[in-house]
Amino acid sequence: MKTIAISGKGGTGKTTVAILIIRWLSEHVSKSLLAVDADPSVNLNDLLGVELKETVGSIREEMRTLASSLPGGMTKQRFLEYKIQSSLVETPDFDLLAMGRPEGLGCYCYANNLLRDILGTLKTNYEYIIIDNEAGMEHLSRHNVQNIDFLLIISDLSVRSIQTAGKISRLLKELETRVQEKYLILNRVQGSVPQSAKKVIKDEGLRLFCSIPDDENLLKMDQKGKPIWHFLSDSPAYQAADQFMMKLMNFKRE
Amino acid sequence: MSRLIATRAIRGAHKLVARAEKELKQEIEEKGPQTKVEFPNTGYYLPISYGILGLKIETIGGLNELLEEAKKLLPPIPDEKLWLPFLGHTLDAGMATLFADEIIEAIKYTQDPLPYLSEPNPRDEHLWLGAANDVILRERGIEFVDGTAPGFAVCVGYCPTNEIAVKIARELQEKNLYVFMAAATEGKSMAQQLQEEGIQMGWETRLVPYGDDVTACIHSLGFSTRVALSFGGAQPGDYRKILHYNKNRVFAFILALGPVDDEKHAQAAGAINYGFPTIADTDIDQILPTGICTYEHVVSPVSHDKIVSKAIEVRGLKITITKVPIPVPFGPAFQGERIRKEDMCVEMAGQTKPGFEYLTTKKLDEVEDGKIEVIGPEIDEIEEGSKIPLAIWIEVAGREMQPDFEPILERQIHDFINCTNGVFHMGQRDINWVRISKEAKQKGFKFKHFGSILHAKLHGEYGKIFDKVQIKIFTQEKDILDLIGTARKVYKKRDERLADMTDESTDTYYSCTLCQSFAPNHVCIITPERSGLCGAYNWLDGKAAYNINPTGPNQPVKKGKVIDAVKGQWQDVNEFIYNNSHKTLEIFNAYSIIEHPMTSCGCFECICCVLPSTNGVMIVFRDYIGMTPVGMKFSTLAGMVGGGAQTPGFIGHSKQYIGSAKFISANGGAKRIVWMDRALKEEMEPVIRKIGNQEGIENFFDMIADDTNAVTEEEVLEYITKKNHLALSLPALF
What we know:
Chain A is of the alpha/beta class. Chain A has helices at residues 14-28, 44-48, 56-66, 76-87, 109-123, 138-142, 159-174, 195-203, 216-224, 236-249; strands spanning 2-8, 33-38, 89-90, 95-98, 128-133, 147-155, 178-189, 208-213. An eight-stranded mixed beta sheet of chain A has the order 3-4-2-5-1-6-7-8, with helices on both faces.
């Protein structure tokens, strides 16, 4: 099992990058993929073109309201397990788990404790886990994703989003998460990367891995909330992804 | 018991003792009293007389003493009109029979040529082996002790056909039992029948032909007596220990095949002394009331296809299956394995098809152990990728089985099936969901294997509380919809029963001393309304655990006389606590936090303690790491409350106990709660609101302070005063 986490400031197109990666892995490496939508503000499923049933968040709320009268005489552990397993969206190319809304007021320690366990076990069933995170990485810390093999921080060329990338990179040190390799990917780059951006990257202590060219077609669909899954083949963005994924996975094309 | 069967056994004993006397007299006249007698290469003299009486008989003359003992035990033959014999007389007659048998068999060993082949296996025309030597005893006897062989069947007489004889022998072998054969009837014996069929016999195949004389039966009891002497630590002459050892450790029984004469009745009476029952295929009188044997003493008539399973049931023999017989790997490592849709061969029940899992109790004769039926299509009759319904219907029967155990066993279906490589299981009852992988199907996994898994695992882990289990797997919607209503009715009843149980509704609680390894003086008393403080054991769990392991850490505790109903104090509970706390605790109140409260090991989910100035109590859950209003963190509190000492004002308890009507009920109950840590309070919200409603306090939940608004006792007092908490108006705690 390898875990790839994707993070970055909102609006930098990180969900699009997540989809590029899922698509590439399913096409070239394995269909044993679990995509985790851990950013409640963007809907990974919409861009993937699949429909969501329930989210971990909604299940957690349901358990809290039912509390002492769970159906089937089940324990909380067994109930959560059942619901989480059945909330997975299954496609021929990947499975999708949505974390959903973050917790409301009140204490979620107990539910999160159980979830940590259940999600931990679920993950071991897949060859690759691709997590689309929000910038704060709240889910990572809450649900104890202890090992990340690749953290890809996505940024566009704006100073602010590169600074956010720097913050994310530093934040990781505070979390109990071990990251094997950490890379910056610049998205929506027209032409080459300007010197000013390179300087900010250096100041933030980041390492630029690659850049993805501006892809107007994808951007339009993204903005409209239309699924992009099926329109990737010819897109320049996907071609860039092909390059960096080959590099990242140490993949040799036959 | 029947007068007739006792009469026949006593009459048989008289005949055998008379025969022994006659043969012995003749032998002494012919060979002289100093002639040596022994069972060759054995170190226990003549084992029955040595074990039961402590007699060391080495000569023919010495047998006279044994004969005298036999005569002393012989009760008069019941007169047809005068008196009714009792079990005691039958047992005495049985013991006299065993002594007479041993005399007759011992004399045989002085004859030339020897009537027995003193080797482990029959050879050429020599079928009968007689007494086993000590090498065999050491090699085979240990199997009775370590459980490799649970016991033996003494097959007396013959079967109607050779085919039946072979079938019975095979069935006994399959259960790992030794088959001892003796006593021909009308010149015919089961051993001869097996010989005719070319079956290989001897100690190696566990098919042991002892002798064709009725007295040769004694070699089986002689063998088990020697097992008790050499492995059970019993001293010669300590007959109580030898007989108890055999009853408790050696699972033996007699199969009476064909006509049963007086002498054979007498053998059965002898075996009852050892706790070994007799099962007959002919219609002889039964001895049903239990007393000496674990269950019945003599059962008849039983058909040949049922006789082995009936014998196992009557003897109380437990079947163990060490390997789960399925074509895919099995083990806890496979729990949590998800079968992805792409790898899936079939999905059962779940979100799209109906299904349920149900376990129920049946009568013993309604259940055939190990019977597995698939009703509807099997895995190879459905299309790959299909979604089909599934019901797993389990019927168990057992002398110790109680309906209360049904949900406990039923809950295990999930854990057991999930250990299968290539099978995914979720949920329980009518929310069940199963997937089987293509790979598992390729390896030969079938729906019927659900039955194999459940049969093996239920026997393995819960065999103590039931004897037989049969499983039906339904895969057609119509059948499932027909049955689901029945199951749902029972689910509902179970939930109601658990919720309705009160401490007053039972006269027995259960103890838990599991933690005495580190808190040697601590005893948990688990009542229906106060679960174990660790939260892991409720009253039903305690009850089931006791039935699974009667000598384990969960023992039944009779309440006895009520000393104080309000505080929850009972005479026999006090006594139990005293004896099991190494005499450190004399009094215990189940419902009080102030006077003699229950002790704690250290595994408590929560600690409750008095906050004196608030006239109430606080509760902290073990995961809360912050400071509490009593001025101690959980870890410090735990050190104070745990360890098995009574600390007035402090108790350790489960979360569940908070919602119990008996929660510190001697001190005013849950109304006293003035502070909880926030996480616990949130989790228990529905329970707390319910308590509030019952007390008629609308906003009870909000009256309770928590760590977000109070961490010192002063702050708690301030908070609850503002909220006008009920505890303030209750009588003083002290």
